[in-house]
Amino acid sequence: MRGGLGAALVLLMASAVGAGALAQGGRGSEAPDRPAPRTDPNSRIAHEQLLEKARSGQIDLYFAGDSITRRWGATDYPEFLAHFRRTFHGWNAANFGWGGDQTQHILWRLENGELDDVDPKVVVLLGGTNNVGRAMPPGGDDDKAAGIARGIAAIVESVQARAPEATVILMAVFPRNDNMAVLSTIAKINERIEKLADGDRVRFLDINDRLADAQGRLRDGMSPDGLHLALPGYEVWADALRPLLLGLLGPPAAEDYAPPPTGDPSAAGRGRAQAQPTPPPTSPPTSGPAEDGTPAWFLQGSFPDPGGNTSVDADGTVTVLPRGRGRGAAPPPSGVERLPPTPFCDGAPLCGNRLTPGRQELQRVQFEQTLGYEFTYPYVLPPGRDGVITGGVPAVALDSKSNLWVFQRKPPGSSQLFKFGPDHELILEIAPDVIGYQEKAHGMAVDREDNVWIVDTNGASVVKLSPEGELLMTIGERGRRGDWDEGRGLRRLWQPVMLAFAPNGDIYIGQGHANESPNDAGSNDPENNVGAARVLHLDRNGRFVNQWYGNSVGQGKFDSVHGLAIDPTNGDVWIGDREQYRIVVYNSAGQFLRTMQMRNLVCALQFDAHGNPWMASGQDGQFLKLDRNGKVLGAVGNGMGIERGQFIEASYWVFDEDNNLYAGDTSVGRVTKMIAP
Questions:
Q1: Which domain does 134 fall in, by range?
Q2: pLDDT tens by residue, 550-573
């Protein structure tokens, strides 16, 4: 069955396998650019099955390669196969991968019937990692890299001979971590094969910076063994391919006519798989082009943090005040209860390195704004005791009636919590004696009953208020940071930062501020000696369900829970580990799922009206739209500063039903409404 879609795609991917019996770019005496068969019985049976697959159904998306490729669409890897089918349904995708293949083996299979009469229009080639192996040649790797690159070029040539209408998408070799020394070989291969691309019939696609860090180390969750891909790795790959497939094939059809999937005939003896990296550049880049749905990016300098020592005009214009004015400048009025100061972070690596440049020296990653949002300033906050609008706004939240709650850091004796109506006018001001002085006003959220919850980090408490501002519940003991031990009846909070609600109303409280938390680990206080970031899970009535820690053994480490949001589609818990520039995802029961390394500070997390994830980049000054693998899809904000559309610290914000954004600024007393196009 041929035709159907306006274009067909062959995805040719030589992926990873074990490291045995690898020669200079080939197995034994085999040359990587000369076709060579696999002679073991299992491979011969697999070849016959793939020949039958090539003659069956309609194949518009053709995958070929070895074990990484094979597993994605193989019957003996049902989880990967299900993802393959979901991702490529409607594009008639068939998988022709076979474990253990080197370039010469892929070449032989293509030249012995597996591509005959399939008539593809596009070919994506990822090849050569099995030729690389795990060892660095004694005489250096130049000859090996050159030979493997010739093998990949021969595959491209063979595909074009059998599918002259095909566009070849040439994949960079993936990172592999079984021997970091071979990363230089992979770098040289990628440098050579990139030159095969002409931007039309042959295109080069490199996803290695999403699979691995700048040193070639595979990111958490990408691989189960340092070689093969785990499901998050396949998700990264799929996300990179999807826009190319849409451009080349158009939207997927409702029906799919691909042949049935195959698997390993023996369903045993699978070899180790391999992946391939892009090694670090000799100097870091300062900008990058738009690529695969991510906007172009550039570096932008920092701005001095006024720490709330600002005044704000009615039109949103910000003035930095002379020292001696602003939050905390005037002594507190009599009768205002102040808590003892919380110790600074000291004596631990998380506290930062005082011998290296500080925040003001940072060059911050900024993404080009392509989403078309407009910056407005319709809210005028009440002045403080000195008649000046001072003190930052770390958090805002919307209720179901479009009322906006604003939580502010202000001098003692001033109100800190305000409610504005849909017309942007102030309708409620919570008196200080209701909630007490919030020593470090931080996170805030509104539940399904329109109750508002506020977090005082240094006060070690979370307070629940009714829509009318009546105190309903306090979690933790004000001014007594510590641990929650249900068995001992000990119910304290340690540096609470943010909270979020599950679809069933359960409460998740994120605790731990990393470089801004005291070093309580191992203290002599039996009620406060864990000293680690954690997530506390309570039911809607405040009863204990579970908690987990960022320093537990195993994957899923986090040093802070500065960002916290619940995925509305499945209840997963997204943690923003700000100073580590990463998002860590757990399920609702506290089981680790994956880690996503970001290029920006992860200060806050939210899901928009359509259920899409976003993050606030803190002092990087933007709100970033993401996919569920952490890829940036769009940006709102002009970076760090006090001008229009800028933020000293973009933090806890909220969406309305039209996807307009409302945000404060932790270091500036203004609220920005960003209107969607």
A1: 9-284
A2: 999 999 999 999 999 999 999 999
